[in-house]
Amino acid sequence: AGSSSAAAMAALAALPPLRDVIAAHGLEARKALGQNFLFDLNLTGRIARAAGDLTTGTVIEVGPGPGGLTRALLAAGARRVIAIERDPRCRDVLAAIAAACPGRLEVIEGDALEVDAARLGDGPRRIVANLPYNVATPLLLGWLRDATAFTCLVLMFQKEVVDRLAARPGTKDYGRLSVITQWRAVVTPQFEVHPRAFVPPPAVTSTVVRLDPRPEPLAPARLETLERVTAAAFGQRRKMLRASLKPLGDPLALCAEAGLDPTARAETIPVEGFAALARAVDERARAPSPPAAGNATVARA
Ligand code: SAM
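A: This is the predicted complex of the input protein with S-adenosylmethionine.
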């Protein structure tokens, strides 16, 4: 392995600099594709290292673009990288990287929203990506549905999104995204990245975050019900639960069953409290008339 990895390092090092690659292939960034490229090798190396040991299983990269982070993942020893890129202009550039590391990089040309990443390659699976910001949140929510398929996710978002992912109850950033994400994963912000690190620079500061999926959700609940409960509660975040939960049934009964104060507001309720509310909503839906067969099982994955 030593000499083959040395050969791979030499082959990676022999690839032309990213700036030259972009110029030679006319890969000017397209805003519609959320393209903000990273050329700084220290930075791409740091992102790759935040995902830990990459020498087993599969690294899934969304949006490799010209391949800066892809090169860093391979240089960090990734056994196998499966990269999903929508922009066909990147095909030849990525093929050159694959040729430098035979058998270690596979490129899927297509829309990552339509790929089931939980079924790609062998486990342990790690997702590492400098995400296209226009689809970053829907991608994350899709992966969280199958969270246990992944060992960890190291993702670059706008800083403001990471603030919401990591927010604690009682803060202004705490909302639906915080509850759903923290219910399924431990969220650990890693470091901020200045707009100048990208070409072209985005309008806002970015943050790399690491998500470690929990083996079991923080508390039992059905995801669909948790989504409904958080939508109702945070849809009217300044109102008390006794008002905001009305669309879901008798709010006082739901709060009593969940052990919550009906005069509290959504932003003070911990994740476990929303899970308890979701269970209460499902209980009450079940109580009056028995459910049809196969309905309403408690999601554990
Ligand atoms: N990884 C590269 C880097 O760090 O320099 C590029 C990151 S850039 C922020 C986002 C990349 O995602 C672009 O290459 C873009 O073409 C690609 N992309 C945008 N939407 C996508 C989608 N729906 N599925 C897959 N890739 C997408």
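The first strand starts at residue 37 and ends at 38. The chain has twelve helices and nine strands.
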